[in-house]
Amino acid sequence: MKNTQTSTTLIIITAFIIGGLVGYYIASAANPFSNGYMQDSAAMMRGGGSTMMQMSKMIMSGGQMMQEKGQQYNDNEMMRVGQELEEKGQMMQDESDGMMERGNGMMQMMGQ
């Protein structure tokens, strides 16, 4: 009886040790925060921010054109939609500025 308890306890302890070692090696091999990963993430953020900036300028320009046409044709609905587009473009521009700043900040932290 005592021998069975000892062997069961020994098997459980051995299983925990083996499981811990396997988990450690798997986690160390799949390090998601490696330097290369962080550099790629920062570059992606900067690139995405730049693309968002271009899109926001186009949206703002489209909104301004809609407002001008709305005034020309005395169309209040077109003016309202143009104003909304311009506001959304400005909001998108602010978000893209933040994204580019975070990407630049990450690159500076890594010494790039």
Write a brief caption for the model.
The chain has 112 residues and is mainly alpha-helical. The protein has helices spanning 2-29, 35-72, 76-109.
Describe this structure as you would to a colleague:
- With 112 residues, this protein is an all-alpha fold.
- It has a domain at 59-107.
- It has helices at 2-29, 35-72, 76-109.
- The termini are far apart.
- The model has no long low-confidence stretch (mean pLDDT 84).
Low-confidence stretches: none
Order of helices and strands: HHH
Helix content: over 70%
Average pLDDT metric: 84
| Principal-axis shape | elongated
Reported for the largest beta sheet, the result is: none
Transmembrane segments: 7-27
Keywords: Membrane, Transmembrane, Transmembrane helix
What would the keywords be for this entry?
112 residues; mainly alpha; 3 helices; elongated
Secondary-structure topology with pairs:
Layout: H1 2-29, H2 35-72, H3 76-109
